[in-house]
Design brief:
Length: about 400
């Protein structure tokens, strides 16, 4: 893309740029100056801070602008420039990519929102599957394949994984380091008769894991080591919480806004000295987080660890009204993935996006044993994008539900 013409505004604060396709970009003087790409200003190593913004005059303004290299380079001189004899440099392709007009911002937001693209697809609620053999045959492509499913659709099952305890660590080592929580780096979901519902045979409602942390775990992996034929029940259910939230926004905007504004509290308090690690975790945050553009970028839902609601009196009734409406949507059958894991299945899902549940079960002399762990969402997304570039795929950094639109 090349620059056809430029024009400085009368107040010398805006540079109106006309591109070869007649698109118009408007760049503020400070924006152009503080993103200068010359060797004097562009960092050469990580955390190199070459431009101290407060040192510049608040009245920084355009003085001269020059287009060179057949419209592919832009050179700018500023009034009240801090650096002696400095000329700001910009590559036209970079400038066009970073255009922040409303149309370009909307296009970038929509391109990153793979979650909404998937929800609009109307796909049947069947978990996508890949086979462990595919990962063995081509580690990079196989890993990228299941990462793509989880990034775009929220979940994936790797089939035929050997039923050895070490396998969950071997597979995750291809992606990121394990995320430590109060349950340790790796844990076993099996009936132990303990005081945690997960380690029993009772049913678990639709939920996310551990919102009592400031940052809840990102990706969750559950490797089925045993699911004996004698066991009855224990089926899995999953719901895309982002889909449920968008339904709430459409059907009941007032309740949607309540869950954006009124926070709930989640806690985990275990001071038993014989626990793996005694903890006192408590966190208050809203169920729904919006970004600057009004898009949903974060959701939280875990009724099992709710603490006492601590909000102003005027918000109590409207909170419970919104909570009930949200629960009604989450329980709709048409939103639910329903499936039964088998020995050798490794379920991977985005814990910040997908709700998961388990039916009650009876062992009948058999064993249901899953081995689980968590991975940081940022690390997994990074690995996905690094692999995409290594394999030559043109992938736009996606929204993944980590409270960011990028």
């Amino acid at each position: 893309m090349s620059i056809k013409s430029v024009q400085i505004s009368l107040d010398k604060n805006i540079l109106e740029t006309c591109w070869s396709d007649d698109h118009i970009s408007r760049f503020h003087a400070k924006w152009i100056r503080f993103h200068c790409k010359c060797v004097r200003c562009k960092p050469t190593v990580t955390f190199d801070y070459k431009i101290d913004i407060p040192s510049f005059s608040p009245d920084l303004a355009y003085d001269e602008v020059k287009i060179t290299d057949e419209g592919h380079k832009l050179y700018v001189i500023f009034e009240k420039e801090l650096f002696h004899n400095h000329v700001t440099e910009h590559d036209a392709d970079w400038l066009r990519q970073k255009c922040y007009c409303d149309a370009c911002l909307e296009e970038k937001i929509n391109a990153r929102d793979v979650i909404s693209k998937h929800l609009r697809s109307g796909r049947e609620k069947v978990p996508p599957e890949v086979y462990f053999e595919e990962i063995l045959e081509d580690s990079d492509r196989g890993t990228y394949m299941w990462l793509q499913h989880v990034i775009e659709e929220g979940l994936c099952i790797i089939k035929h994984v050997p039923t050895e305890e070490k396998m969950i660590e071997e597979i995750t080592s291809k992606v990121a380091t394990l995320e430590m929580t109060s349950y340790g780096p790796v844990w076993n979901v099996i009936d132990t008769g303990g005081d945690n519902a997960a380690y029993s045979t009772i049913g678990l409602p639709l939920h996310q894991d551990q919102p009592q942390y400031e940052t809840a775990p990102g990706f969750q992996l559950l490797h089925t080591l045993r699911f004996d034929s004698a066991v009855t029940g224990g089926n899995s259910t999953m719901v895309d919480l982002f889909e449920a939230v968008e339904i709430l926004r459409k059907e009941s905007p007032e309740d949607f806004q309540t869950l954006v504004e009124v926070p709930a509290t989640w806690c985990q308090i275990d001071l038993n000295p014989f626990s793996i690690e005694p903890v006192y975790l408590e966190h208050q945050k809203p169920h729904i987080t919006l970004d600057y553009f009004g898009k949903v970028v974060g959701c939280v839902w875990q009724p099992g660890t709710h603490s006492a609601l601590q909000v102003r009196e005027r918000d109590v009734e409207r909170y419970y009204k919104a909570h009930n409406k949200m629960m009604e949507i989450i329980r709709r059958k048409e939103l639910q993935y329903k499936f039964k894991l088998s020995a050798g299945d490794l379920l991977i899902f985005n814990n910040r996006r997908m709700l998961h549940a388990r039916d009650a079960y009876k062992s009948n002399g058999g064993v249901r044993h899953l081995r689980g762990t968590y991975l940081r969402l940022d690390h997994v997304k990074s690995k996905y994008l690094v692999l995409a570039r290594k394999l030559g795929y043109d992938v736009i950094p996606p929204k993944v539900g980590n409270n960011s639109s990028m």
